[in-house]
Amino acid sequence: MGLTIALNRGRILKECLPLLARAGIEPTENPDDSRKLIFESRSGGHRLVVMRGSDVPTYVEYGAADVGITGKDTIMEYGRGTHFYERLDLGIGRCRLMTAAPAESDLARGLDARRPLRVATKFVNVTRQYFESKGRQVTIIPLSGAMEIAPLMNLSDCIVDIVDTGNTLKANGLVALETIAEISSRVIVNRAAMKTRFAEVQALVATLGADADG
Ligand code: AMP
Questions:
Q1: 3-class SS of residue 76
Q2: What tens digit of pLDDT does each residue of 23-81 get?
Q3: What atom in ligand 1 is closest to the CA of residue 53?
Q4: Which of 6, 79, 177, 181 could cross-link 65 (Cys pair, CB 3.0–4.6 Å)?
């Protein structure tokens, strides 16, 4: 039997499908054009399961998937998995996890800002750890999307979000301030699968790794 591989739907999926294809793993139909979520591979008997990025570490942690591909941001937010290893940086899906605030705000102008700072984000754990490490008191306001609206609606003073080109921030009158982490897509492997599926996992990681370096 092949491996069960959990994949982050959306742009990471788009970018990792060609890498998987070069490793000989191709779904029988294009996940981008399908409403199906589980795909068999044409050869090798692998199974590709497409899901929200934040669910990928969960599937791999509990062994429902042997391998997962998702962004470092979702892995950091999940926290230290006790049952998976991060094995490879694929170098795709590059972006930054950053703080951002309205361009005209005291915070963006480097002036002393309100304490505790109100921070809207979906990266609640990473944000808490980041400000704790800086000794900065914050109130975290959890949101599930469209964080950039929060400061405009006076729900928060700033946000913590993914920034790629910066266009989304700019379009909403925000500026990026501090980089919390450089993000890219990673391959994680369930600890038990690492032992019981050693050969298949090693072959996959080696092929994807050769690709990432090249
Ligand atoms: P941008 O306008 O190019 O800075 O893109 C920012 C928006 O796109 C953010 O709201 C993110 O949610 C999303 N985004 C950009 N790059 C990535 C990535 N590599 N992984 C996940 N989300 C991303």
A1: helix
A2: 999 999 999 888 999 999 998 789 999 999 999 999 999 999 999 999 999 999 999 77
A3: 21
A4: 6
CA 20, 29, 35, 65 torsion: positive or negative?
Answer: negative
Any atom of ligand 1 within 6 Å of the Cβ of 151 = no
CATH of domain 4-93+184-213: 3.40.190.10
Domain 95-182 grouped into CATH 3.40.190.10: yes
Q: Is the CB of 163 under 6 A from ligand 1?
A: yes
How far is residue 214's CA from residue 208's CA, in Å, rounded to a whole number?
Answer: 10
Q: Phi first, then psi: what are they for 39, rounded to 5°?
A: -130, 135
CB 93 less than 6 A from any atom of ligand 1: yes
pTM: 0.94
Name the residue of 162, 174, 177 whose CB sits within 8 Å of the most ligand 1 atoms, as the mutation to test its pocket.
162
Q: Where are the domains of the chain?
A: 4-93+184-213, 95-182
* Position in ligand 1 atom list of the atom nearest CA 184: 19
